[in-house]
Structure formats: structure tokens, C-alpha cells
Amino acid sequence: MKKRQVNGTHGTGKSLFVEMLRLLIVFWMIPYILLSLVFYLTYFRRDRLQVENTVTASAENAAETSLMNLNRAYEASLQASYDGEIRAAWEKFLKDGDEYDMYGSVTDYLNRTYKYSNLLSNTIVIFTSPDVRLDYYTYSNVAGATYRDVREFKQTAADAVREAASSLDTGVVLVSQDGHLYLVRNLVEKNYVPFAVLVNELNMDKLFEGADSVVFQEASEILVDENNVRSTEGDSRDVSALYEQLVLDENLSKNQTGRAETMAGYNRSLMMAWGQCDFGKQTVTFMYRLNHRDMLSEQHYGRTLLILSFLLLIPILIGSSILIKKDVTEPIDRLVNEAGNIAAGRYGTTIEEFHGNREIATLTDTFNRMSRSLDYSFNTILADEVAMRDARLKALQSQINPHFLNNTLEIINWKARMAGAEDVSEMIEALSVVMNATLDRNNEPFVEVREEMEYVEAYLTIIRERFGDKFSFTEDVAPELMGFKIPRLIIQPVLENVVEHGRDEKGKISGRLKIYRESLRDGDIVFIVVENSGQISDEDEQRIQGILDGKIEPQSHTRIGIRNTDQRLKLIYGGTSGLTIHRAEDGHTVCTLTLDLTSNTDKETARAREACPRK
User: Fold this and answer.
1) E strands along 5-84, which residues?
2) CA-CA distance, 99 to 196, in Å (whole number)?
3) Is the pTM of this model over 0.70?
């Protein structure tokens, strides 16, 4: 073989350094800038959403905490009605008229029940009868209350409480008066006629403790219905004005009913957060003016970090360019030049050793060794090709022609008939049929049922000769299915399973083949059922199902055959088709091949389906 000379064209293309620099800019710097921009927008959007969610969540938590405290106060107020001690003292007073005795009983109960509450500052009982002249009250030192608060109630709020209680019936109501908030309910006799009013002044610092934890707030105001009950120390009139605009923007109602117990929201344009909770028929509203500067402090930090990272990109780009030129492009240029010498047929040329980086050094060393050994390899390649041709020729000559085997069987069959050995002749014919079916010289993946039954009969002929009277088998095939096409040799693995595992307790093998078709509402299904006298245990049935599902590796030829059969049917006809093996009620083993004609879209089986007429 002559040496081939390839003339390289060097120095005519673009510079590798320029190309790599361009790639750095296009695929690194520009994407970095774009990603940074996307990150910038995404970061601030996410940060804004996070701030909004945080503000909304804290406002809702404040409303929920306040509602929980209101419910606690309600339960404490209800305790006076449940215990009945005040009513008992009142009924005793109606009988004996001793108010001092009633005063002692009522005051003692109020002290025991409400004096140490941190949620209720004062508890006052106002009897409706003009005959009662003493004051019934207690105040909680735990809540920071004094008798001055009781006196202030009598002077400023008693009349408003009586008016609210007059139309209250058995419910409760919140009454706001001069910066105080009272929980008012009627105490009723057994006939539900009110005899007194129970007034619990709420400790608003404890009641609305969650309102102070709303993030980024700089001013707040709390309303019960439309009455201001608590404000921050600053002027809250601007908060009220913002809330009026919020009501218009968010389509809110100051006294919403029939909704969730708590709700909250955030308005970015107004820098306003709000929360609401329902207490009976009243609505408690929380309004918060937010500090815009505190909310944006995180975003300023992110913007600064992004600018610094972009400035750092420039020296990285310069340093990468120098490194690429020194340790990549220049050494590769030397390799390209020397490769041109090898292409011209000047084998054995070498390059000076490179010490810059391991990859290029390895490439240089490999190039040198390749160049030195190329002469030897080139001289020996022709001999190797000749040896390979000889080996292929010998392999072709060693193959046995299937036609030769078929012709040989025909000669043996003719000899057997001439000698009168009809059983031997029948065995040879059956073997020939099975072999022809296996070879599939016409390359037909589908055959008609009548042809498949010929293969079955040939196989059964061999098995009957093998087992004699110990083997019996019957076939029941619907006549209209004889022209229906099914996959070639699809029944063969199931018959092998009968022979391998179909023995009964007496060592006999009996089986039955049935092929029929059912027209269901969803489509047509062809069933090929093979039943044998063998018995399988529950453990065997689980193991077989594991083999079919691919969870257990089959250990025998027949197990491999049934799994392959199941996979063939699923591939051809769809997932609803396949092979199932189960134990019948009489203990026999039943193998069922299901061919779902509805789910199949294969052209060959579509034509086969047309060849099978409906009943």
C-alpha cells in the first residue's frame, strides 16, 4: 500500500484565539449580563413579593392574635353566667333585701374570677334595679388597673354601656369610649329577663399585642366598626386618610359580615397594610402605615452587590484571555503546524515538550509518540487487513445453510418411509414444520391462526411421541378465527410451559387450548387460553407475576419465553394486552393470551383484524 499524502491548508482560517475570545464574550459575558438583568428583575420582584407576603402575613397574624384574645375575653365574660353565683346572690337579695350580703357575695366572686386577669383590666356589675345602690367592681393589678379606671368608667362610659345593653338581649358587644374598650353583656334570670350588666374593660395593650409586631410599620390605628380605639403615639389622622383611600382601591367595606374570621391585605401604592377580624356582628380593623425606607434597604444591598460583581467580570475576562492565549491557542498552533508535516507524509516529526498545563502536555506527548509509531503502524496495516479478510472468509465458510438442513431432513424422511418407519417419518415431518416456523424464511411476523395451529400440531406430535399415554391435549378454535392473523409462534412458549410444569400428582400431563373472540362495548378482544393439569402454589403465582412484571429475573428457558411473550403482546397490541397465569378453582393452571384489538394501531395487525369477521 502506498503512502497517502494529505496537503493541509494552514493559516487560512480564523484565529483560534479570536474565536475563543468571541465565544467568551458571546457565550459568557453577554449571557452573564442578561442573566444578571433577569436576576435583578427577578430578585426585586421576588423581594417585593416577599415583603408583601411578609407584611400581609404579619397583619393577618395580628388580626388572628387579637381575635383569639377577644374570644378569651368572651369566654371569661361568659363564665359569670355559667357559674350563676351573681344570679344566686341577686335572687337572695330579692327575698331578704340585704344588699350588704349580696355585695359581699358578688364582690368576692368578682375578685376570685377576674382580679388576676392580664386581659381584663376592670370588671363591673351594674344592676338594673334602682334598689341597688352600692358599686360592684374589681380591678386587676396584673393588667395595671387602679380604682381610678373604675371611677373614670362611672363618669364617662356608664351611660353608653347601659344604652348598648338595653337592646343587647343575651349577646355581647364591644363599646368604645374615650380610649377605653369594654366588653358588655347582660346577666339574665332563669326566665331570661336581664337583672344586671356585666362590663369587662379590656386591657388593649394585651388584647392588641400582635398589632405592634407588624413589620415595617411606622404608625397604626385600630377601629371597632368605625370608632378609633387605639393609635400609635404620633398623629394617626394621615393613617385614617390612607385607609379611606384603601377602602376605595380595594373595594373594602368597613363592616363586612359573612366572610372569614380574619383577613388582611397590602397596598403597595399607598404603602398601607390592613387587617380585619369579626367579633360577633362587629368588625375590628387594623391599619398600618409602612416605612418605605426600611422596606427598600434589602434591595439597595442587592443592587450594590450586582454592580460589584459586574465590575469584577472585566479583570476576569482579561485574565481568561491571557491564559487562553498562552496555555491553549499557542500550543495548539504548534500542534497544527506539525500535523501538517505528518499529513504531508513526513512521519516521525516531534514537538518540544510543553510544561504549561497537564492537558496540553499530555496532548503534546501523545502527538510525539503517535508520530514515532506511525511508520510502524502504517507498514503493518496492510498485513492486518489481509488477515481480517481471511478470517471473515473462514467464518462465512463455516456457516451451515438452512436449506441444506431442510433438504437433509427430506432425505431422512424419504428413507424412513421406504423402511416403513411411519412414526419416525411423522416425527421428521413435525420437526421440519417446527424448524420452518422458527427460521421464518419469508420474514412474516404475523401468520393466520390455521398456520399457527399447524406449528402447534407439529410440536404436539413430537411431545406425544416423547410422553406417550402420559400426555393428552385438546384444541377448541372458533372456526371464524382461522383466517385471523396473530404473531408467529406466540402459542409455542405457553405450550412449552405446559410440558415443563403441567404434571399432576400421577405424573400425567393434560392440557386444553381454546381460541375465541369476545365483542365488548369498548372493543374486540381475542383470547388464547391454555389450561393444564399442573398445580401452582400462591408463592409460585407471585413468582410468575414478578417475572412478567420484570421484578424477578427468570431462571429457565420457559420462564424467559413467557416473559418475552407477554412483552411481545404489550408492544404489538398495547398495555391492556399481555399474558396472565393464574390458578383456577379446580386447581389447574390457566395461561391466557389477551389480544386487545381496540388499542392496537399497528398496520400489520390492523390488516389482520380486518381478516377476522365479527360474530
Assistant:
1) none
2) 14
3) no
